[in-house]
Amino acid sequence: MRRLISTHPNQYQTLVCLAVALLLNANVFGANISINALSTNPLSSKNSAEQLPELGDSAAGLMPPAQEQALGQAWLRSFRASVPLESDPQIFEYIENLLFKLTSYSNIEDKDLDLVIVNNPTINAFAVPGGVIGVNTGLLLYAESEAQLASVLAHELAHLSQRHFARSVEASQRASFTTLAGVLAGIVLAAASEGDAASAAIMASQAAALDSQLRYSRLHEKEADRLGMKTLVDAGYPAESAALMFKQMLNASRLYGNKTPEFLLTHPVTESRIADATNRARQHPKKIITPSIDYLLVKTRISVLAEESAKNNIKRFNSALKKLNAPEPNRPNQTNGFDVLSHDAARYGLAMSYLQNRQWQKARKTLAPLIEKAPHKLAYTLLDIDIDIEADDSQLAEKRLRDLNATMPNHYAISMALAKTMLANTHYKDAQQVIQTLTKTRPHQADVWYLMAETHGLAGDILQVHQARAEFFLLRGNFLQARQHLKHALYFSQDNYQIVARIKERIRDVNSLQKITENL
C-alpha cells in the first residue's frame, strides 16, 4: 500500500544528529555515535528505590536544560524533514498512549514528550534531549507483545531521566579536531552520494576514541536497563519481558548479518546482557498479564500498510487463519511472525487486506464476526467505516464518525477520519472546525497542520491556508518557507489590525527560532 524508503533511514538519523551536534560545538564524536547517543532529559530524575549515580554539576554546566531543549527541538524539526514518518493516526495514538503510561511511572520530571514514529521495518528506538522519543514501526514487528515493546520504551525513558547525552558530552571533551573534520567529511559525502564512502569516513574518524567511548556507553546501557526494568514493573508489566525482548533482538542481529540495525549497534545485545536482565527479573514477583489485543491489532495494521501488494496480504492472512484454525497438534507453538497472530488480529488483517484490494464486500464479511464479538472496539468500528467509504456510502460514514466524535471529542484518529470524510462530502466548513480544534490539542503534529491547510484551501480561506502551511513548514525546520507563507498571509489579511498583529508576531517568532537554532 505504501512504499518503504529505499535509502537506509538510520544513515539519515545519524547524519542529522551529528550535524546538530556540530552546531553545538559539543565534540561528541567518539565511537558508537548515533541517535541513541543523543539521549537525555533536561531535568534530573526523582528519588527511587534504585541507587542511581549523581550526575554532578559538570554535566549540568556543560549542557544547561534550556540548551538541551533547544537541541531536541532543532533536531526534531530536521528529523521530520529527513525521514518518512508514520502518519496513521491509530498507530500513532496507540504508541503515544503506551509511552505516556510508562512516563507516569518513570523518573522523568518533565513528562511532556514529543513522539515520532519512523515508517521503516528495521528495529530502532531512540531518545533525544528535550524529551523526544522515536520508534521505528519495525520495532513492533519484532516485539512479540506489548510488554516487550514497553521494555524498549522504558529503556529509552531511562536514558532521558539520567541525562546520558549530557554525560556523553562531558566524557568526549578530548575528541580531536581531526575527528570533527572526519565526521564533517562523512556528512558531506553522504549528502552527495549516500554511499559507503560516508560511513567509511565517519568510522575512520572515530577509531581513535573507540575504546573509551564504548566503555562509557556500556555504563549508560546498564544504567538504562536497570532503571527501565523498574519503570516496566511499576507500570504493571512482567519484569522478564526485557530479557525476552533482548533475545528477540539477538536473534534479529544474527539474521541481519553485516547490515545490523543502528539500534543493535548502539544497544549491543549479548548473552551476558540477557543473563543480567534475567537475573534482575527474578528479583520481582512473577506476573502474568493477558496479551493485548490492541497491540496485536496495531502490529497487524503496520504489517498491512507496509506491504504494497494487497494480494500478498490476503494470502498471508488467509494462511495465518488456516494455521490458527488447524487441529491443536498442528497449530504453531511459537509467537513469532504473522502466522501466529491471534485469530482476531489475523481476521482483522485479512479484512484490511480485502479493503486494500477494493473488495469491500469480502472485507465486511470478514470483519463482521469481530464486530459481533466486540461491537465497541474502536479499531473494528473505524475499519467498518472505511468499508462504508469504499462502498460509496460516505454520508453514512460521516454520520457514524460524527456520533463517535460526540462520544470521544478530540480523539486523534476519529477527528482525522471525520475531517477527511467531511472533505470528501464537501462539508468544508465543518471540517475546518474539527481540524481547528485538533490543532489546539496537537499543535506539534505536522500531519494535522498539513490537513488544516488542505481543508482551508478547499473552503476557499486563502489567508488561513498560508498560516497553516507556515506552521507545517516550521515544524519541519524550513524557516524560509514558513516566513514566506506568513508574508503571503499578511497580504491576504485585508488590513485587519488584530490578524496583522498576530501574523507579525508569528514572523518574529520564526526569526527568533531560526536565530536560536543557528546559534546552538
Please explain how this structure is put together.
The protein has 520 residues and is mainly alpha-helical. It folds into two domains: 9-281, no CATH class; 293-518, Tetratricopeptide repeat domain (Serine Threonine Protein Phosphatase 5, Tetratricopeptide repeat), CATH 1.25.40.10. It has helices at residues 9-24, 56-62, 65-82, 89-103, 137-142, 146-161, 164-171, 177-193, 196-206, 210-234, 241-256, 262-266, 271-281, 293-306, 310-324, 343-356, 360-373, 378-390, 394-407, 412-424, 428-441, 446-459, 462-475, 479-491, 497-518, and strands spanning 114-118, 125-128, 132-136. The protein has a three-stranded mixed sheet, with helices on both faces. The model is unreliable at 1-61, 173-199, 201-216 and 334-340 (pLDDT under 50).
Topology at a glance:
Elements: H1 9-24, H2 56-62, H3 65-82, H4 89-103, E1 114-118, E2 125-128, E3 132-136, H5 137-142, H6 146-161, H7 164-171, H8 177-193, H9 196-206, H10 210-234, H11 241-256, H12 262-266, H13 271-281, H14 293-306, H15 310-324, H16 343-356, H17 360-373, H18 378-390, H19 394-407, H20 412-424, H21 428-441, H22 446-459, H23 462-475, H24 479-491, H25 497-518
Parallel strand pairs: 1-3
Antiparallel strand pairs: 2-3
Helix pairs in contact: 1-3, 1-8, 2-7, 4-6, 6-10, 6-11, 8-9, 10-13, 11-13, 14-16, 15-16, 16-17, 16-18, 17-18, 18-19, 19-20, 20-21, 20-22, 21-22, 22-23, 23-24, 24-25
